[in-house]
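Q&A FORM
Asked by: J.P.
Topic: structure of MoxR family ATPase

PROVIDED:
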Amino acid sequence: MDSQQHTAWSETPHGSVLSGPPHPDAAGPHAGGQGAAVQEALMPDFHETCERILEAINTVIDGKAEAARLALTVLLAQGHLLLEDVPGVGKTMLAKTLARTIDCSVHRIQFTPDLLPSDVTGVSIYNQDKHTFEFRAGPVFANIVIGDEINRASAKTQSALLECMEERQVTVDGRSYVLADPFMVVATQNPVEMEGTYPLPEAQRDRFMARISMGYPDARAEMDMLGTHQSVSPLSRIRPVAGVDEVRAMIAAVHGVYVAPAVKEYIVALGRATREHPFLRLGASPRALLQLLRAAKAAAALDGRNFVLPDDVASVADAVLAHRLMLDRKAVTAGENASSVLASVLARVPVHGGTHRLSSWPAGDG
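REPLIED BY: S.T.
REPLY: Here is the structure written out as tokens.
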């Protein structure tokens, strides 16, 4: 990095915005020196590998480049992804395609009402020959775990993933077993209005770094799909374009992305604003803010930068925060949803280098 480059701040109607790379000495002990050298060495390969993964995904999922990019962002940020939408829009296909682009272990779990927690995590079985109990690992022991229709399982089975997703380990009969590295859960779910579904509890939703609603593709994408998917699934042609060691190196590169103190203040201000909003009963948790930071770092890296801009935070805010927010009855009456309330928060919280102070919300403001 050029020693003459410094952090630049530009004035906008909402305050000052970080607009240039940080000075090598300003990043602290974790971003300068050896850490910065490792980051710069990885960045060229990082971008090329990301492009290969996204290109492979986009050959299968028509018209959903943004969803593919966000899925990769979550992987690089070491998070978990929740895909929510009506049946038939490609939720499972996106999860399977992401998994196939990486040469790693992949397991799929079909969640049903009769699925037991031990069917997910594993179980201890008595070995009569050795007169001891042996642990048989469940499908959660893989680099990428695809949980199909997670909200069709009971709350007890859903809770089996809590320890896995947060602590990346499984505890059975008092003994802990470490999960694979990297480890990512990609779960799909149907809207709670669909028959036979169980809403995910707040604690479970909070474990997912981001939620994507796929939506219907546009007319051109559907025309392309009818031409390419009618005889054979394009998923059968997907081959791994990155190895698990490459993914570990990319995750390490994301860890080295620099975040200025003012950007951290901006993230904290967003979180506090959600907790004070009159339309929300439950705002963003501290875990949510930490995951927002990680996702913003991955988004910056995908754009070829080793420093985070406030725009990176805003670009992933809806995907990371909206599914964690609980609306007040006033919001429902006013026709608001979590995304619209979050948009109002993003519009009101300023970005600057000083302390964030948010004035009180006007009565009835969404």
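FOLLOW-UP: Confidence is low (pLDDT under 50) at residues 1-39, 353-360.
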